[in-house]
Amino acid sequence: MAESPILVQRPGEACGVFGVFAPGEETARLTYFGLYALQHRGQESAGIAVADGETVTVFKDLGLVAQVFDEPTLATLEGGVAIGHTRYSTTGSSVWANSQPVYRQVGDNGIALAHNGNLTNTARLAADIGRLFATSDSDLMTEAIATAMADGCDLERAVVDTITGFEGAFSLAIMDRSTLVALRDPHGFRPLCLGRLREGWVIASETAALDIIGASFVRQVEPGEVLVIDGSGVRSRWPFAEVERRLCLFEFVYFARPDSSLEGRNVHAARRQMGYRLAEQAPVAADIVVPVPESGIPAAQGFAARSGIPYADALVKNRYVGRTFIQPTQSMRDQGIRMKLNPIPEVLAGRRIVMVDDSIVRGSTTRQLVRMVRHAGAAEIHLRISSPPYRWPCHYGMDTGDRDTLLAADRTVEEIREFLEVDSLGYLELDALIGATGVDGFCTACLSGDYPTDVGTAGDKYVLERT
């Protein structure tokens, strides 16, 4: 009896943010399409906040962008300033209360905040603002800024005065009734860029979200920069002490869309170069190169080009199933493992295959995929991974905080090969991976154990209220 198709596990990443300052434009509709382009970054909830100069209105719910918003809803969201958010939870459970943007009323004004990343000092931040309960680290940040506004600061001053107390990863879009603020933490763990509309400005987690609404890319928001956009134009503030840039390397490996650019480098081109270098580093005699779709496709193309082994699509993806890492619990992942990928026996039967993927995190579903491909008739399976072994937990916005769940944490490559039941296993070395991107200044903590900030107490976080 044929085995069922499976769903491949991925690490989870926290969220996509989007913002528009364009008086006179349909900013909610622009934000909707921007979030649609960022749906890959989070599928648990979606939300949009808009302001018309007098009030801030927020609409958000659990589900995909297209499930949360419809024409009648968007028609009610009027204003010249808007921010939006798609969420994957890393701090705070997946419930409506944790959906974003987070909102606070401040006198006759209001503040809405959308967050990509993860704080590492939630307990101290909660103590500083006297908050006994919160639903997420984003909730705490919003409370801190709102408290400063209640003391008489405008949004710009409240943000600048408050954010130096935040530690960890935070790319933020913040707004009140007339101003849009975008910022990145001083290390720049998570991406954020600035775009130009004919009559306004856009900020987004990825450049692909600019493309979908016809905005032109201006530049990235720099690490440690606070970008303020209002009726007087665009200006920058720099409240942080300068530190080393540390963009998450996994943005290039997996998270970002292949049609986005990071640090001036196209993501697809970088991933293809990863596969090219992987073929040089871990060659093997085989008949075909098979990608694990979709994030393994560029690396498989590069591997095939360098090795001369023919490229073949042998795993069919159901494109109507969400990306695996969106499921926040193992039980939910287990329910989804027979939904996404199915092999083509006619392509695989009797052949020695190189199966190329971007990463292995927990490993259980990779082993299931290997068994499926073997059952479909593959004579040999040589697994090649276009990143190094994932050995260390992330505290900056990926859902891999428990090292005990990581396949490579305490295993050698040979032990991993035996667990996955493949004929050979090869990983791309870290230097080669960084070289393939064409840029530098990365956080490699999950691959190297080298954390850019103090995370000694990051696992002992403020206990967030679960509702």
Can you offer a commentary on this structure?
By secondary structure, the protein is an alpha+beta fold. It has 2 domains: 16-246, Aminohydrolase, N-terminal nucleophile (Ntn) domain (Glutamine Phosphoribosylpyrophosphate, subunit 1, domain 1); 266-447, Rossmann fold, CATH 3.40.50. It is built from 16 helices and 23 strands. A 7-stranded antiparallel β-sheet has the order 3-2-4-1-10-9-11. The protein has a 6-stranded antiparallel β-sheet with strand order 5-6-7-8-12-13. β12 (226-230) and β13 (233-237) form a beta hairpin. α9 crosses α10 (297-307). It starts with 15 loop residues before the first strand and ends in a 19-residue tail after the last helix. Mean pLDDT is 89; it is low at 1-13, 323-328 and 459-467.
Helix content: 25-40%
Counting helices, strands and paired strands, the structural category is alpha+beta
In CATH, the topology of the largest domain is named Glutamine Phosphoribosylpyrophosphate, subunit 1, domain 1
Largest sheet: 7 strands, antiparallel
Tally of structural domains: 2
CATH superfamily of the largest domain: Aminohydrolase, N-terminal nucleophile (Ntn) domain
Discrete helix count = 16
Please tell me the overall pLDDT. 89
What are the low-pLDDT stretches, counting only 5+ consecutive residues below 50?
A: 1-13, 323-328, 459-467
Cross-sheet strand order for the largest sheet = 3-2-4-1-10-9-11
Q: What is the overall shape?
A: elongated
Q: Count the E strands.
A: 23
Q: What is the CATH first-level class name of the largest domain? A: Alpha Beta
